[in-house]
Amino acid sequence: xxxxxxxxxxxxxxxxxxxxxxxxxxxxxxxxxxxxxxxxxxxxxxxxxxxxxxxxxxxxxxxxxxxxxxxxxxx
Length: 75
Description:
This protein has 75 residues and is mainly alpha-helical. The protein has one domain. 28% of the residues lie in helices and 0% in strands. The two termini are 31 Å apart.
């Protein structure tokens, strides 16, 4: 219905780019998304343990604005 990132199904930055290009059901077919949402009961929160697991390094480089943050945030 909608995109949820981080997600364990996304193992690399390439997969993340591909997912970003997909149109979520909520935008492509709002009526179908409403029908699917009626099936949801309660709250389930998953902790993505394998998000970007195939990437060698996810540390921010000097060219990114995130690089000004402490390295401890990225490890």
